Amino acid sequence: MGVAYSVGVDHLYTFFVQWSPDLYTSSGRKQSFLVVNRQELAMIDSLLDQTGPNNWEIITVRKSAHSRSLAGGLPARVQGTVWELVYSTAEHGTSLRTLYRKTAPIDRPVLLLIQDIHNQVFGAFSSDPFRVSNSCYGTGETFLFTFDPEFKTFCWSGENSYFVRGFLDSLQMGGGGPFGLWLDADLCRGSTFSCNTFRNQPLSPQQDFTIRAVEVW
Asked: Which GO terms describe its biological process (predicted)?
């Protein structure tokens, strides 16, 4: 999985190192990716723990138990895959149109990570890359997840197939009532409610939330 961290700049390393440590060891088998070891991860964690959220744009999970849980929830066909960062608000700006443009060349599943201004981390795995559409798309592999207050995934209920729908002014996931996850055109605000598609709990304590950062892998 593609991994990125940059101490002192906008875009930091993510939890993918902990997902597949065998892919990111000193052997450096994967070219063009940053190689880190456990001591370096510990140092980075220490730096992050000492740094206020106002100084860092970060979507990261540093607890290996959480990262293992999410990795285990991924479909078998993508487990062990090397993921690459496709879109980041810190790097590409806050624009849903830019997100669509960055995901347009992709023909594989994507992982959406969101951090709100209260540092809650949640998101979605989509079987299809995000795009503007006239109807809903995706498969039953799609699911929502949250890390706060504890890690939970919300898989397809089988009740409907309203997995994902992309508009120029919003991105919507889940339906049959309120949306499970909704993001606005500027990727500044979003909403999360229980929906029939995933029978999920709201992903954040704030059902109407303000976004700090978004990443698509």
From this structure: regulation of transcription by RNA polymerase II; response to oxidative stress
Segment 12-54, tens digit of pLDDT: 344 444 444 444 344 443 333 344 445 544 544 554 444 343 3
What residues contact residue 135 under an 8 Å CB cut-off, 6+ apart?
Answer: 165
Contact 106, 90 (CB under 8 A): no
Q: What is the pLDDT at residue 173?
A: 98
Residue 48 backbone dihedrals phi, psi, to 5 degrees:
-65, -35
Whose CA is closest to 211, among 128, 119, 115, 130?
Answer: 115
pTM of the model: 0.72
Q: Which of 5, 130, 96 is nearest to 57 (CA)?
A: 5
Residue 99 near residue 130 (C-beta atoms within 8 A): yes
Kindly list the domain boundaries of the chain, sorted by start residue.
16-216
The neighbouring-strand residues paired with 144 are 124, 154
Q: CB 9: neighbour CB atoms within 10 A?
A: 11
Torsion of CA 29, 33, 38, 41, to 10 degrees: 180
What's 14-56 look like in SS3?
CCHHHHCHHHCCCCCCCCCCCCCCHHHHHHHHHHHHCCCHHHC
Return the ∠ at Cα 153 (arms to 93 and 207), rounded to 5°. Answer: 55
Tell me the two tokens of residue 166: 């992309």
Encode 160-170: b = buried (16+ Cβ within 10 Å), e = exposed: ebbbbbbeeee
Q: What is the dihedral of CA 126, 132, 133, 137, to 10 degrees?
A: 0
